[in-house]
Amino acid sequence: MMGKWIRRGLLALLALGLCYQLWIFAHIWWWVDHNPANSAFMDERLDILQQNNPDAELRHKWVPYARISGNLKRALIAAEDARFLSHDGFDWEGIQLAAEKNLKQGRIVAGGSTISQQLAKNLFLSGNRTPWRKIEEAIITVMLEKMMHKRRILEIYMNVIEWGNGVFGAQAAAHYYYRSSAAALTSAQAAKLAAMVPNPRYYDTHRNARGLLHRAAIIQARMGSAAVPR
Question: What is d(CA 182, CA 129) in angstroms, rounded to the nearest whole number?
């Protein structure tokens, strides 16, 4: 009798897992040609902000790919995913290099996540690091890569990633930091925004940190060789 209930429980969990995957699949299918209004990270951040201020709102405005500066596209690819156009969602060489660097340092100092993996995490998952989340991130990454062109993946990524305390997307970031539009970002401005991506809330309040400026200079030097989707 106990074995029967265990089998039923496992089947129920399997059915729930399948339904969740189908729910994610349906969202990605819809977002192939419709813009997401928010993301899991945006919802999580808004909840935190509203705990202190019930009237808090996020800074966010969607802009299409053509209205985002080529400087920012090149800067993000140079900073986050140099092999973006050639990989299938996972940069295995980058993962290996990051693992070797982390092992050498004895702590996590580098990540091997691609833009596609970061988008998967931002759209659907929480900020908690668990083995289950990494597995789910991989599944979602495969879905994104199979269903969307690289241009669309980058377009959504630039519109939903966090760039400061309650600041999401390229348009809001350009206005917040430079009183500019995403289309008008200069090479230097784009490089600095790209340098902020790994720790945006910290750099929001430490905009002239030495590490940030150093990283921005490296990114700007690499932008010329970054290939972007047309």
Answer: 31
SS3 assignment, position 86: coil
Rounded to two decimals, the pTM is 0.90
Residue 59 phi, psi (nearest 5): -90, 115
pLDDT digits (tens, 9 = 90+) for 53-68: 999 999 999 999 999 9
Angstrom distance (rounded) from CA 219 to CA 12: 49
Residue in this structure with the two tokens 């989340």, named with its chain if needed: 133
Distance CA 128, CA 40 (A): 12
Contact 84/139 with Cβ under 8 angstroms?
A: no
Q: Which band of pLDDT confidence, cut at 50, 70 and 90, is reported for residue 92?
A: confident
**Closest CA relative to residue 164, chosen from 140, 192, 187, 142:** 192
